[in-house]
Design brief:
The protein is an alpha+beta fold and 274 residues long. Helix content is 54%, strand content 14%. Strands 2-3-4-5 form a four-stranded antiparallel beta sheet. The longest helix has 29 residues.
């Protein structure tokens, strides 16, 4: 089992200033987007597939709410027709020592109380931050060849993928000058699939943008489906974040954090060739 890079390995310049700067801006933006997005979601804690929603339609795939049974309040979450008791953390949450009908605990939303207007202001502001930073990163990465040299998966990466997956499963982590196949595929997926999809589905939920680009409604099968995709991509990004943090800890947090602060990283001795 090889986790932390050997102390006798060379220290090389791994990350450019543009990669480091945008990385931390994205981290802040996505944090506020997540919590303010959940605040907005509480206004209608349901997800649908299709162009329409309402009591006359049976197209809900997720619903979070509270019910009173036998004089007691309970949180109930319905997912694909299956009902789950989620009292205390979804639907009915604890506040000041008592259960209140609220989709999420105050610690999971911004603001911590029910305030749709403020949640929308925060969400839209950081959505602009995210989109602008993504554009700046793209231009910089094309200019310094980071995109083509380090991120774009190639045929040899796909061939090496099974071995890389097996190494990660055994916690045999390598520290090289360049990203390994799993890193390339995951970062490429986040930057060129998840984030653009998040931005585009978010815009599709805007009536103003629908008037400008009505084709997006056809692309995603309606505003409600776009909202559902937006939510699912959010969950995928949260899962990516959790795995990302776990891998940073396993690989050596000091070395990994140094690479995203100073750009310099200690690599394995056998990885000295560019």
């Amino acid at each position: 089992m090889k986790l932390i890079a050997p102390r006798n390995g060379p220290v090389v310049q791994r990350q450019s200033i543009w990669t480091r700067l945008t990385h931390w801006i994205w981290a802040v933006a996505l944090f506020f987007l997540l919590l303010s997005g959940l605040q907005i979601f509480m206004a209608r804690p349901d997800l649908y597939i299709g162009a329409q929603s309402g009591f006359q339609f049976d197209n809900s795939i997720l619903s979070i709410g509270a019910v009173v049974e036998n004089g007691a309040m309970r949180g109930v979450t319905n997912l694909f027709g299956h009902r789950f008791d989620t009292t205390g953390w979804l639907g009915a949450v604890w506040q000041d020592g008592q259960l209140v009908p609220q989709s999420f605990p105050g610690s999971m939303v911004i603001p911590t109380y029910r305030d749709l207007a403020s949640g929308r202001v925060v969400h839209f502001f950081f959505a602009w931050v995210l989109g602008t930073t993504l554009l700046v990163w793209l231009v910089a990465s094309i200019a310094n060849r980071h995109l083509l040299r380090d991120l774009l998966p190639r045929g040899r990466d796909l061939k090496a993928l099974p071995r890389d997956v097996a190494d990660h499963a055994r916690l045999r982590l390598h520290h090289g000058r360049s990203y390994n196949p799993l890193q390339k595929l995951s970062y490429f997926g986040v930057l060129f699939v998840a984030l653009p999809l998040m931005i585009l589905t978010g815009l599709t939920m805007s009536p103003g943008f629908n008037a400008l680009a009505p084709w997006t409604l056809d692309l995603f099968g309606g505003r409600q489906t776009a909202r559902t995709i937006h939510f699912v991509v959010m969950l995928s990004l949260v899962a990516f974040f959790v795995v990302h943090i776990v891998m940073v800890i396993l690989a050596g947090p000091f070395n990994e954090l140094r690479s995203m602060i100073t750009g310099r990283m200690r690599i394995d001795p056998e990885e000295t060739k560019p």
